[in-house]
Design a protein that fits this description.
Oligomer: single chain
Largest sheet: 9 strands, mixed
Strand content: 25-35%
CATH superfamily: Hexapeptide repeat proteins
CATH class: Mainly Beta
Helix content: under 10%
Radius of gyration: 18 Å
Order of helices and strands: EEEEEEEEEEEEEEEEEEEEEEEEEE
Number of helices: 0
Shape: globular
Strand order of the largest sheet: 1-4-7-10-13-16-19-21-22
Number of domains: 1
Structural class: mainly beta
Length: 196
């Protein structure tokens, strides 16, 4: 174990936690979770075995992170975000479903790429990828992949624009997007975006 802080009411079963990480009240981190350095895990969050959390990740209060989820470096997870990992869920204790759950064939992975942000109360369905620096609006239900730098809102999630690496919505002028906050510029063409 490295140098990290864990609140006295947190349950931390994993030994794979990077230095400078802080785990707050009533959080539960199961065995075989990997958490990088300089992360913040909010109160009442649950992280199941098999989850991978990169460096500099913020997980706000009340989150549920289930097996198969990978959060890359710099991801922000707002309060009460839910991730699923099974597209056809049944109780593994149901006699008719026991055979299906003997292997991990039911498990679908979800990837949230570097710098992406997920707004409060978002629901991220299994087998999706959230692109780098994408911004998922509060209350969104994401059932398909989200492109890098995309701004998505609603249920189901739909793209309404692009965001800068700093998180601000880009002002678009033809094939150029400009951040009104930090002045970064991007090339936008055919639903693809790249920094200039």
């Amino acid at each position: 174990m490295s140098d990290f802080f864990s609140h006295s009411t947190a349950i931390v079963e994993t030994e794979q936690i990077g230095s400078g990480t802080r785990i707050w009240a009533y959080a539960h981190v199961m065995k075989e979770v990997q958490i990088g350095s300089n992360c913040n895990i909010g109160d009442h969050s649950f992280i199941e075995s098999g989850v991978v959390v990169g460096n500099n990740v913020t997980i706000k209060n009340g989150n549920m992170l289930f097996e198969g989820l990978v959060l890359e470096d710099g991801v922000f997870v707002g309060p009460h975000v839910f991730f699923t990992n099974d597209l056809h869920p049944r109780s593994p204790r149901l006699p008719q479903a026991k055979m299906r759950y003997k292997s991990h064939d039911w498990l679908y992975k979800t990837l949230v790429k570097r710098g992406a942000s997920l707004g409060a109360g978002a629901v991220i369905l299994a087998d999706t990828t959230i692109g780098e620096y994408a911004l998922v609006g509060a209350g969104c239900v994401v059932s398909h992949d989200v492109p890098a730098y995309a701004l998505v809102v609603g249920n189901p999630a739909r793209q309404i624009g692009w965001v800068c690496e700093c998180g601000i919505t880009l002002k678009e002028d033809g094939q150029t997007g400009v951040c009104p906050s930090c002045s970064r510029r991007y090339h936008i063409k055919d639903q693809k975006i790249s920094p200039l």
